[in-house]
Amino acid sequence: xxxxxxxxxxxxxxxxxxxxxxxxxxxxxxxxxxxxxxxxxxxxxxxxxxxxxxxxxxxxxxxxxxxxxxxxxxxxxxxxxxxxxxxxxxxxxxxxxxxxxxxxxxxxxxxxxxxxxxxxxxxxxxxxxxxxxxxxxxxxxxxxxxxxxxxxxxxxxxxxxxxxxxxxxxxxxxxxxxxxxxxxxxxxxxxxxxxxxxxxxxxxxxxxxxxxxxxxxxxxxxxxxxxxxxxxxxxxxxxxxxxxxxxxxxxxxxxxxxxxxxxxxxxxxxxxxxxxxxxxxxxxxxxxxxxxxxxxxxxxxxxxxxxxxxxxxxxxxxxxxxxxxxxxxxxxxxxxxxxxxxxxxxxxxxxxxxxxxxxxxxxxxxxxxxxxxxxxxxxxxxxxxxxxxxxxxxxxxxxxxxxxxxxxxxxxxxxxxxxxxxxxxxxxxxxxxxxxxxxxxxxxxxxxxxxxxxxxxxxxxxxxxxxxxxxxxxxxxxxxxxxxxxxxxxxxxxxxxxxxxxxxxxxxxxxxxxxxxxxxxxxxxxxxxxxxxxxxxxxxxxxxxxxxxxxxxxxxxxxxxxxxxxxxxxxxxxxxxxxxxxxxxxxxxxxxxxxxxxxxxxxxxxxxxxxxxxxxxxxx
Length: 620
Known about the structure:
Blueprint lengths: L43 E2 L4 E3 L5 E5 L7 E5 L5 E6 L1 E6 L4 E7 L7 E8 L2 E2 L3 E4 L4 H13 L8 H4 L21 E2 L8 E2 L13 E2 H20 L24 H15 L12 E7 L16 E7 H18 L4 H20 L22 H15 L2 H8 L7 H4 L12 H10 L6 H24 L17 H19 L2 H14 L53 H6 L16 H4 L3 H15 L12
Parallel strand pairs: 2-10
Antiparallel strand pairs: 1-3, 3-7, 4-5, 4-8, 6-7, 8-9, 8-10, 11-12, 13-14, 14-15
């Protein structure tokens, strides 16, 4: 995630606003609202990818009408397949749109090119079927290979337009990330911190973003080991776009290892001050020029001072890695566990070493002065992996334990700055040495949080399981939606209750076009997809010789804060769910990051496994 300083000195005039179309008025129904003009296309909003055969099928229409309207479902050849009436829903507070909803869940005929028509207006086309999300799963996971540092990106895996030489490797100026000094006053030695994933639109690598991201990729795999009926084959060896395929290790773990190796390199070596802790981040001395392909970056890279938050991210993710790699590479698993234990001890010895909020020259600050959540997460993962009483005590004695509202905040269940929920989810689902009563309590924490998110989804005309504080959408709101969906999906795994599954699938509807902007937020998925997200290599809007973002890239989404010049100018006065524009330099609404694509990959893996009729409709 970048900061406002990234656009200093850049020319923004070439980024033209999208043309205003006939649907402008659909964004302006609330009386007295000085909203920006937005072309939202058809007022009939659906999931532009489609609906599972036996899953809920719902949508929304923006209309000033107050009485029910007739909807008609037509197949690709124009034949009518179903019809019904809409349900008036009043004004949606997130968008200030006057809306009605419709439900065609009874339709179970598989096919492509379906549309819904209401009052002469037709939705974008969509499919009905069992296996709609296999390509989304693969694309969302390929995002991480695309953004690897220190390795050539192979055209055979991603296509020629996305291939590139290795970024920041030994051959780069200043030896790239293989020989990096600290910022002034940080340390008096140099470190090899090669590898890992570039964080976002910039080319920094941040331990607090890397930790949650690699943990969620590993959790997507671990779920297949702990949940009956979960699909492990789709994440297995030879199934994903990674160069390690064919090595006998599940491809998703190969991808996770690329980041895990980097995180271990960020640990302060023994014999040095703050030994065992983790450097907070590494990035260019100044903000990387725009656009810049990673291998063409000539700036000096610098390590930034260790922090307690980064150290606990290392402890948690390395502990999880240790148990997952034990059967595939015992030596690497042992190295991970040693790193995790060492990091935990270092964090306990230095519990208040905080990253500065002002350290934002050349990269995001990622300041975080509350680390109780990181302590909880790290203790949970170490306890699950080792069974040691000391870690169990740290979990059970935490003020966060048994408090679902604290573990899973209302606006968003998890984020880089709020990680306790990761530990709670694993305590509830991964075999461990809690007593039966304690396991039941852990599961109850998950389901109580899921009850809130499911209620939020049911209340929303767009079905979105997201109700942030004061109704204001946050930076990266789409990742908050997805992380709430992770909690809902886990609750469904634990209980089988249909309302949790319904809310997950309604969240997919929202992300893939069934939202106030009629906008799919995932590149390559849906008719009106985001494709100008903020990225220094995927910068086609600035330089047509460069590619657009790769398929499966998730845009951050609506953000009431409007923390960039483009968004401030174009979106002033926007309703919360309308505060989005698909522009390259609108980074506060349109950035892409590893910690946003990680829950997308988790959820895509989950919903892809629902095909074949396993997704039950509410009430059935």
